[in-house]
Amino acid sequence: MKIDYTREDLIAICERAVVPHDRWGDRDTPGAQEGVGKAWAFLKAGCTFRVSTEGKYCVTDDRTIWIEIDHDDFGTRDWGGPGETETFYLPTPARLDATAGRDWY
Predict the structure, then answer these.
(1) pLDDT at 1 over 90
(2) Which residue of 5, 27, 30, 32 has the fewest C-beta atoms within 10 A of its own C-beta?
């Protein structure tokens, strides 16, 4: 199982993970697609990220890549706060290959 994804790997996965609206097949697909888009934007912007590989929940496996992304927020700009960390999930390349352009969620 791969865990050493680069920024470029993750950006390419985000771009592959966008499913055309007429192929959505699950009630949770809109949220999954929103997460992909948000993760893509933060990665493209150069935000710090980590692939989650340890713990009980939200751990990368052979189907799902879990990433934590740090970014500035309102507080960072207004009073020097620490920013925010958000967690996102992406399908692995193998999962995308298996769905062949269909809804991976």
Answers:
(1) no
(2) 27
